[in-house]
Inverse folding.
């Protein structure tokens, strides 16, 4: 397959993961930032892949057409235009941006700031969170999908945290609260004042309060999972670490599921999931998941207060982006799933 | 006055603040860790104070008796025994621990792990959060108090964040959620594995989920402020920074106060407060308050979701401990308030 | 006095220090970045100073003329043009850049990349390292100087570390080596890729190897101090911390001073210096000096290897810039020296 | 093979590396800290290895005897007693401690604080720095060695940095200076005050100035490489990062090799080395080598000052310990070398 936008943090991880996977073959990589150079000058990858030339974005379609599937690690507005073109050439697409995650076209001007150029694809796209099949409208999952929308990093952590509770009707879906904390790689490879060391180190603050684009994505997934109208108030914060993301979700217990059974609900829900671990909430740490494809969750119900807390951690560049994309890719082409190592 | 437990992080800040305040006179300092040495060997303080000898804890009462007020920066179980002794000798006390913050003696075994040795003092103690007078049962505040319980760091930030909303009846007091994030100095000067650099750096996790001792304190203050039964689900997290604490509070709007007036409610509530700043929630950052006596808050109502988010930041060792103690101390003795510089 | 370039990290520290000093009066501040706003919107300063309007750079001369002394926290090329203009108007100048530190005009194209517009001022400028008077050619120090060149941050630490040894002839001045490590604030307030959190955090590297502009400054000062031709190989490194700078200097013992007397040599040299502390080399840490005006040094001679190691730490924005500038300023106007608190 | 001391940072890396290497078979692991539990409860390793039970240290010999080679990640004093026992049972040993690195038994009381219990093994031990064969006295390298002393982390970086220059006679071997900076994992998994987050974060200081045990190791290796008496003044510093080590070495050019040829000397010396990269000194960064088995070096000669600077970086737990141990292990048993990926 090919990777478009290979010079970004997620794109670089994709290159490494695809190169290491025995069943996958990386035939082309695209990024203006590294155009004209060899991939190996920028990313440590096996020799076979290191010698790939990086093509400019203007060649994205030509390069992608040489593969069966194109992995897009491009900004949403770029993916929104590029994906339809690739599909038209018969190339299947896994898009790591938000361009095809939301079913409602009207959400794009509101949350992403642009009018969607290919709204007809929104209903077709498969929302690819493998451990929460009900987050997608496609019954067959990624298998027959032409277009997979890879979930957002915070969204993955939040949906994993709340889906079992919403599906079981254990909480009030109308008042869920998610506090997200992410390492700086989640902001992408941009030269901006807010991403300077002097701005981030020894500091913490919330951003996009009330208007982070993962909000509609989390609500959509949970609404589908629980067949309810989910409302999630989501606040992200920028953490002074490189890698890792943790969300702490709060909700009100409905009383439908006894407090003592809430944790068992999680263990059952994720027992089949190789890459989702359930532990005590205090054992859900960035260190346990960073540089791995795992997500780790912990839940604790508070009988006295009628509330439940779920902590959910993952590596924002892996389970929150590149390794989840590989899970979807492998499902699409029938390759062995991502090693659970 | 005197400082007992001057070798702790908060104790050291107290020494510096008292030494710098023109109207205050530091006459004695106590700490086993530095006993027998001079204060100036450990903390940068003006010469007059640098030459004070640090007495051992066994001399705490004798040393404290030489002053008008004793500032206790000792663990709760120690303060619980020491404060009554000092009061019996006519020394007024500002206690930085949780030993006298809760009115209900039964809360101590449950949340602090010990039986309170002087429960009769709990009703008398003034809960000293100057900007939220209603958090205390003492009408006169610190002025005539013999014993002031200095609030906890997370508790200060959380109460400041929610009190105006609870007092105005703007939110449902039965389902408030507080996500706390604190720098490591908040854990105190202990040699423990969880506080090692290799455990904290590049990492984040929640701790004491469902059983952090600031929970009853926050609920008590908000219950008093709003004359309601407040329920707060509080989850703290350890941040890889040295100083600074931020809480993000979530609550459901009751509808009593129009969304558009929620921010004005905060600005009015804190207009008289020299040390509380109200800004946009994204401008509430650790950097803005670290090493200062300020607290900074931001609020945003979400009309669509019927929720409100408040971010609240302060320096855990200053507004969350030592500088707030000085605010209380100055009020007790009628000294000019802490400079708002 | 006035501060030109008040919006930089050093400039902001200057504003705070001047505002806090009882004998100094800040009458004007200049910076394009904050032009048109009040100083207090950006820096926490006392009310009297907070209301100062920040003037644009185009008004620098007019603003500076209202004061007795102008503190320039501008880039070297800007200071090089501005200082002569201010001097012509009778305003004395303390320049925090390198524009007037080197006596040889030819050094400017080589080390700073520009031709000096006012080379005639280079001989007049006083190199202001108060604790090493011999680093300057002006016998009277700052007292009667019209123009003071405030030393560089690494240079201050390195000169303090080596001057006593060079003056005593204890080392071979032809082969001195200085390894510098500085926090990121030393790079200034620029939006550059190399200063991004993702580039700096968990990372370290040397930069400007063989061509850092503090090299000629260190050699000039030590040559003057020891009346020898000093050669210093200096390599700076960017540290993933905000504040603080430490240099480790290595030199070969000449044999002239017995090994056992080398440390005493330092203690004698700096005994009169309020702001220079001498400790064991392992007790020279960033934490001890950050946010203070102190420099701290430690020395250890290795008899077996015939070498000596000196560690030297200071806060790059304070003793490495702003507080040293205040030391010079106070000497210029005869104000009480910087409090040693 | 087996790993003794698998619970340490280096031991855990060994487990991961051995488990991932197709030709190696991990049959036993030992550590008191994890005794009685499964390896997979502590380290993410493939399933086959995850189920290994961790034996207590008291069983070390029994466990190690089941394998061909034992990797010791134990403190020097422990290795010094354990290795002879294992050798007596016919088990070959790769020791990651300093217990067998120095040829002179008298160096052990001086630098390590204990009398060596098996000094007769010191002459036999192979000093295993694969890219600098001349650092060992064994002509055949690790191939036929019963006992391999894996080099220290700082020592590896310093020897790689200086060996080419010493071997070519390009520098004065009597005055070499090495400034080391290492991430905290290099200090091992200990609960000590100096390793607390509050002590390390935002801080830097030198330690063991004049008495770090890597000093005699570096001098011994360079003396052997250059057939001279090498003198190295080495000063390590503790960096506020988790992983990564960089040394900056300074030396005086002898004049034997023209300045312009110094860099070529390095490129030639390391051209055959898969795991040593030569770049510009500013491109030698922790980020480039952390989490990889590579070392990266850069050199710059200063004609004017007659000095040379070499920067040398590696991951202290990998090329500075575990991955270098694997290089030695593979050489011992004739397995394919460590993949250069």
């Amino acid at each position: 397959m090919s990777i478009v936008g290979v010079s970004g943090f997620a794109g670089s991880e994709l290159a490494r993961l695809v190169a290491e996977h025995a069943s996958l073959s990386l035939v082309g990589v695209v990024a203006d930032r590294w155009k004209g150079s060899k991939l190996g000058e920028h990313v440590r990858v096996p020799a076979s892949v290191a010698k790939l030339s990086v093509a400019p974005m203007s060649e994205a379609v030509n390069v992608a057409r040489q593969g069966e599937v194109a992995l897009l690690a491009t900004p949403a507005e770029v993916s929104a235009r590029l994906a339809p073109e690739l599909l038209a050439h018969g190339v299947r697409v896994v898009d790591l941006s938000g361009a095809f995650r939301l079913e409602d076209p009207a959400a794009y001007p509101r949350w992403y700031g642009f009018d969607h150029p290919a709204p007809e694809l929104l209903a077709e796209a498969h929302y690819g969170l493998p451990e929460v099949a009900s987050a997608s409208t496609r019954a067959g999952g990624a298998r027959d999908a032409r277009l997979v929308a890879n979930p957002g990093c915070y969204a993955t952590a939040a949906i994993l945290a709340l889906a079992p509770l919403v599906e079981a009707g254990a909480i009030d879906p109308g008042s869920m609260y998610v506090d997200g904390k992410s390492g700086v790689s989640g902001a992408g490879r941009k030269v901006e004042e807010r991403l300077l060391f002097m701005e981030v180190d020894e500091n913490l603050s919330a951003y996009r309060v009330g208007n982070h684009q993962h909000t509609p994505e989390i609500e959509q997934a949970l609404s589908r999972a629980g067949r309810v109208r989910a409302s999630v108030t989501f606040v992200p914060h920028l953490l002074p670490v490189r890698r890792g993301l943790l969300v702490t979700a709060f909700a009100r217990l409905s009383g439908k599921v006894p407090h003592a059974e809430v944790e068992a609900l999680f263990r059952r829900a994720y027992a089949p999931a190789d890459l989702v671990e359930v532990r005590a909430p205090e054992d859900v740490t960035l260190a346990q998941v960073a540089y791995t494809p795992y997500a780790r969750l912990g839940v604790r119900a508070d009988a006295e207060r009628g509330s439940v807390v779920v902590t959910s951690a993952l590596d924002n560049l892996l389970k929150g982006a590149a390794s989840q994309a590989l899970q979807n890719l492998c499902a699409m082409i029938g390759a062995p799933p991502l090693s659970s190592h």
Observations:
- Residues 32 and 58 of chain C are 8 Å apart (CA to CA).
- The mean pLDDT of chain C is 96.
- The two ends of chain C are 23 Å apart (CA to CA).
- Chain C has two domains: 2-150+321-333, 154-314.
